[in-house]
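Interim report to the steering committee. The following record documents the input for Glutamate decarboxylase 2 (586 residues).
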Amino acid sequence: MASHGFWSFGAENAGDNSNQSPNSPRAWCQAAAQKFTGGIGSKICALLNVGEAEKPADPIAKQTETETETETETCGCNKPCSCSKTGLGFSDLYSTDLLPATNGDMKTMNFLQEVVDILLAYIVESFDRSTKVIDFHYPNELLQTNNWELSDEPATLDEILISCRATLKYAIKTAHPRYFNQLSTGLDMVGLAADWLTSTANTNMFTYEVAPVFVLLEYVTLKKMREIIGWPDGRGDGIFSPGGAISNMYAMLLARFKMFPEVKEKGMSSVPRLAAFTSEHSHFSIKKGAAALGIGTDSVICIKVDERGKMIPSDLERRIMEAKQKGLVPFFVSATAGTTVCGAFDPLIAIADICKKHNVWMHVDGAWGGSLLMSRKHRWKLNGVERANSVTWNPHKMMSVPLQCSALLVREEGLMQNCNQMHACYLFQQDKHYDLSYDTGDKALQCGRHVDIFKLWLMWRAKGTIGFEAQIDKCLELSEYLYNKIKDREGYEMVFNGKPQHTNVCFWYLPPGIRYLEDKEEKKKRLHKVAPVIKARMMEYGTTMVSYQPQGDKVNFFRMVISNPAATFEDIDFLIEEIERLGQDL
């Protein structure tokens, strides 16, 4: 049976209403009112006001809703029982009335049910194209119209729920099909469920004894990711960290330790001046990591890129040899698989040859492009990644795993442990009764480490590798569709020629007012202001969001990226038309 999309949930219950589309929001809500327990469906529809303005309420449906509400008011157990519900008023309740308070179980259930209702309504709304991506307010407006201040006295649970609603009211709907602003977009339902479970478990990743299942899942998943990279039998090491910037810093830390292990105890004074290399278009985290590790940003040498943003291998080798002649010790090369702006993939095979020749650690920052390894159609863009010493891979980008989920994969097993371990005897006792190799916390820089693995693992179970592959392929197909739509369209100019390598599509929109200017400097000056104005109008109207930036000698241009599985060809068409509508008078 063909799927009718999100609203098809209500189709089977709408057959007796000839005036109502079985795939309409109203049909979905009527079905939800019957299928969800505890009156959740009715509450979602009430919060969304779905169908209320379209026609008078159906008396039968109204009766059903009244019965549901009456049932909900008399019982909170969602099963036959003789108990009575205490009511849904929270104006006289405080957090101290919830568990672990005595007799706090029903109050806790009622409170959390209200929170879940708020979240479910927000989720449904986020996928509705008729709603705004953003309800934009300037910072001073938000500060003045809402009370965000902290107080010595506790707020009631009613006020807490109001704060939850206000927070989501002004939140950016990153799941919205027309949100294209960042590399991390979309909202996966299984991933969301996993995140809820993770927060409920509320444990730490440092030892097997406090996170047995999560530690094992991290072991299994990291091994699978190493296999996909191409390391024999998935051997090696790895860790999930708080984002790609930290993963990249881990890689630099390991590269330094591998070459100069004494630096761990004696510091930078014990080693010669080091030199790291990365492309001009690499992520800023490479320099930030060098600063944090005491290597210094001046020791990060930026390598020239070609017209598509790829590192030029000959320039890399030239700069390595120059650094040696100046007395510096090259220790780290960071190649990029999917640059942030252009989506370029550095030539990994040629870079690997140079690193091997000069005995330099090769890192691949695949935070953005690493997920293309899941696609048989596109993984060739990372040919040579198996020769890297370390790889950063962010599933919270192209794989749409809820933030945050970033992995560092390392080819040499045991190196992370030797580099970072401190043997804290109050955590990592050596006489425990289980295999101590599963106490992974000592190889991390952090002590407290959030459980990021369960979201990825559960989504992988739900989708399978082929599901991720299809999702990634679709996003790249959409980016090619956008490119083909605008490359010869009047008013558009591509930042670089040729099909996009990733989902990044970089372009200028030239409004009619500047399209035919002959003065090149004046045209450039005015074009620089176009993208910021259109972006501001997007946010004011709340219709869509796309990023922009200058780069090098290029004035501000739009950088469209597609990682949202909810996006469609129609959304791409809408974006083009909206840019033209918002910029026609400039």
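Residues 367 and 393 are 4 Å apart (CA to CA). The committee is asked to note this result when reviewing the revised timeline.
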